[in-house]
Amino acid sequence: MTSRTAAVLTALAVAVPVCMAAPAHAAPPEGACRDPEPAHPVVTEEPWAQKMLDLRGTWKHSTGAGVVVGVVDSGVDADHPQLRGKVLPGRDFFLVGQLPGNFDCVSHGTAVASIVVASPARGTGFRGVAPDARVLPVRITDRDLNDSGDPAPIDPNAIARGLRYATDQGAKVINLSLSGYRDYPAVRDAVAYAGSKDVLLVAAAGNRQTGTATSAPSFPAAYDGVLGVGSIDSAGQRSGNSQIGPFVDLVAPGEDVLAATRVAGHDYWKGTSFAAPFVAGVAALVRSAWPELTAPQVARRLVATAAPAPGGATSPEYGAGILDPYRAVTEGLSDVEPAGLPAVVTPPRDLAQERNIAWWQDMSAGAKLVAGGVVLAIALAALLAVVLPRGSRRRWAPARAAALPAAPPRDEPPEEVFLFPPPPMERTSG
């Protein structure tokens, strides 16, 4: 989230290049937004999160085609240049009536959706994780803060209805960039309903961490069947406010990540709300590349292929590690248990072969002894051939050694050589 939204209660078109200079005409229904956020400027640089995840290699294998991702949030601005043609009408469960969910007043849902599906575009390095997937916007809130500046609570019944709606509309992945400490039965039942329909739910772990101790359970991330996502910075370290606990399954970029804003342009956001859609986008890539996998199998694949994180495996801070899109899509995982090693069978003894080997070993040892004796005899014969003639000539008298040359005389220095005058007590008086 931006600093302005940091207190929030973390409440089938082919992707083609889009000109960011194209005019946008986001038009929420009249009266739907009390204070709509204006357009932001375009950011041209490639964001650090896209560099870290390096999706170009992954897109050779999957771009998310054919997968619908539900974004249960503040709505999604379907008119953003990088989202045009990717956002379904959806549904508004916040305002009374039969309004669509494809508009946004505060940009939160638009940012989340853009991380999932934004098209590559000239003039910016920002792009979504699964550019050929589509978004089903489910609007459950309109503001991130109330008039007093406090977090605006989200109606759990609206969340539950939104989850069921997205499930029934065919979403195969649902992103929930919201969190809280309360376990609401309506939300719990809706999560179970989505799981029963083979929907993979991805949720933010929450942004209320103040130390290093394990925090209270964060819902909906703590529900069974939901992937809980923590936030890391560009150095791969956990964001200071990213919550810690067994509900963190893995982590993804969430510190100062670039994403779209309503109408046009981009902004930098912080929080697990924006780490979750990176995981939801990769889940869409996997579901497109491996359509036979069930939602639990996709979740296991995302966890099993995560890259090592500073906290080690199964850390309460980092879960299984850092999201790795390429491995998640390309590795050929198998649910089949590895086959056991065959029992060791000792072959029966071959006595004939053993006798044959022993005979050859004996023959080899004998041959070595014979060869050694021959070599010794030759050496003795050569020695005698030299010694006998010489001894015979001297009639076996001992030979005299040559006298050593006389040593040259040594020039001994005098007893004392003074390079400097002697001390006064040694000088003679004259």
From TrEMBL:
It comes from the Bacteria. Residues 64-321 form the Peptidase S8/S53 domain. Residues 1-26 form the signal peptide. Gene3D superfamilies: Peptidase S8/S53 domain. GO terms for biological process: proteolysis. The keyword Protease applies. InterPro entries: Peptidase_S8/S53_dom, Peptidase_S8/S53_dom_sf, Peptidase_S8/S53_subtilisin, Peptidase_S8_Asp-AS, Peptidase_S8_His-AS, Peptidase_S8_Ser-AS, Peptidase_S8_subtilisin-rel, T7SS_pept_S8A_mycosin. It is found in: Cell membrane. The keyword Cell membrane applies. Residues 403-430 are annotated as: Disordered. GO terms for molecular function: peptidase activity. Keywords: Cell membrane, Hydrolase, Membrane, Protease, Serine protease, Signal, Transmembrane, Transmembrane helix. It is a single-pass membrane protein. The chain crosses the membrane at residues 369-388. Residues 420-430 have a biased composition (Pro residues). The active site is at D73, H108, S273. Belongs to the peptidase S8 family. This is Type VII secretion-associated serine protease mycosin. The lineage of its organism: Bacteria, Bacillati, Actinomycetota, Actinomycetes, Pseudonocardiales. The gene is mycP.
